[in-house]
Amino acid sequence: MSLAIVHTRARLGIDAPAVTVEVHLSNGLPSLSIVGLPETAVKESKDRVRSALINSQFEFPSRRITINLAPADLPKDGSRFDLAIAMGILAASGQVPEASLKKVEFIGELALTGELRGVNGVLPAVIACGQSGRALIVAKDNAHEAGLCDSTKSYSASSLLSVCAHLNTSSELPLVTFTAPKMANPVPDFKEVNGQLHAKRALEIAAAGGHNILLYGPPGTGKTMLASRLPSIMPALRQAQSVEVASIYSLCGHSYQHWQTPPFRAPHHTASSVALVGGGSHPKPGEISLAHNGVLFLDELPEFQRQVLEVLREPLESGVIQISRATAQLSFPARFQLVAAMNPCPCGYLSSRSAHNQQRCTCTHEQVQRYRKKISGPLLDRIDLHVPVNSLSIDELNLPAKQQANEPSELIRLRVMAARILQHKRQNCNNADLSVKQLSEYCSIGKPERELLGRAIETLGLSARAYHRIIKVAQTIADLAAAPSIDPSHIAEALSLRNFDR
């Protein structure tokens, strides 16, 4: 038969749309043309496929070969279509049975020798392939990713010859078996942090409710040390969440090593807006998507360019980042927990409270205000907790290990998990994700609490967004205490954790 149809998958953001490879052999001068909006890497596949077929001892047809990648309006990029194109040519020329291609999809890059090479972004294709009810053949290098999805029947192959032998039933390709990765938690422990009880309490509240937090204080007080330990008290990711994170990492060519551990991303303050939110000519996820279901830590927050920080406002509210290009609009998940750290002034020593610290602030009032105004009000308003981290005293620094009353992360994590369970039983989401409608339904407050909040709004000049976020934090504090409802002490603590002075 001179016409063959092969199934494969393209890459479009976090999705893997189906692509049908149609191969037609006709009479005429020998040629090979690829249509269907192929980009450069796809156009170059004809040379890789020709050499791979010849070096694998197959016959390359001396006919006019037309290859259509449907749908024609979907951009095709990368080398992931090599194997599917090769199988289409072999089926159209009668060298492999076409019937064997109906229930199988192919993804992989071909070497000139006929060996199969892995490609990026395989995991989203594996998930989509399982939903379509077909099996998938991938390169051996992608077998680990394919094994993360237990709903898809996947095979791993090392060469074009082994794929053809499998389709001709002369030998079987190894079936990729699902093996749940062991949970790894390499995150440092809170028991290594002396003092800073106020900051530890704030981080516990942030972890329990999924709240964003800003740590500010002089240099060397442990802000980065505290932030890096936040994932150690967060609940482990569910299997579906881990697969989602691994899919995002797959698109970037990375491997998600620490299974079920919330990801922790800490981009440098010189990062561009594209590096942070994603993009490029072939859009890839940025740091906020790589931090999905985990923590995005921005150290030295005012040192980031203002336009870079402003792009965080939309995903902080929606949990999704939309990237628009001339050819397509892509969506990447970005439901992360923001942890930011900064100094109180350019020199860092404004209001430094430490008996051993002899540094004195040398900044003028105008310099301090200019430094702090690098962070816009709308962005600061979206950060629920503003927590000072002060210098430790000599006694706290020199306290012997046996006398340190530092709680290990595991004990704090148990309290966080208990609070999360209460939240999901009540409203099926974290407190930080409550909508205004859900807030009025699940977080009702009485007259004393309303009066206290009213006085705070008048005194501090809080916005409506800040009003709602304070109630969310108060509800998290109540959940940590297993209290049936919010009381004035919870409101008071929530207000005390939002005291950054502009």
In a few lines, what is going on in this structure?
The protein is an alpha/beta fold.
Largest sheet: 5 strands, parallel
Query: What global shape is seen?
Result: elongated
Instruction: Report the radius of gyration as a whole number of Å.
Output: 28 Å
Uncertain parts? none
Helix content: 25-40%
Name the structural class.
Answer: alpha/beta
> Roughly what fraction of the amino acids lie in strands?
15-25%
Number of distinct helices: 21
Distance between the termini: 75 Å
Number of strands: 18
Strand order of the largest sheet: 11-14-17-10-18
Query: Could you report the average pLDDT, rounded to the nearest whole number?
Result: 90
Structure write-up:
- The protein has 21 helices and 18 strands.
- It has 502 residues and is an alpha/beta fold.
- The strands form 6 sheets. It has a 5-stranded parallel sheet with strand order 11-14-17-10-18. A 4-stranded mixed sheet has the order 1-2-4-3. Strands 5-8-9 form a 3-stranded parallel sheet.
- A hairpin with an 8-residue loop joins strand 1 (3-9) and strand 2 (18-26).
- 44% of the residues are buried.
Which helices and strands, and how do they pair?
Layout: E1 3-9, E2 18-26, E3 31-35, H1 40-43, H2 45-55, E4 64-70, H3 82-92, E5 104-106, E6 109-110, E7 116-117, H4 122-132, E8 135-139, H5 143-146, E9 154-157, H6 160-167, H7 197-209, E10 213-216, H8 223-227, H9 239-251, E11 264-265, H10 273-277, E12 278-279, E13 284-285, H11 287-290, E14 295-298, H12 306-310, H13 313-318, E15 320-324, E16 329-333, E17 337-342, H14 365-372, H15 377-381, E18 385-388, H16 394-397, H17 409-427, H18 436-442, H19 447-460, H20 464-480, H21 488-496
Parallel strand pairs: 3-4, 5-8, 8-9, 10-17, 10-18, 11-14, 14-17
Antiparallel strand pairs: 1-2, 2-4, 6-7, 12-13, 15-16
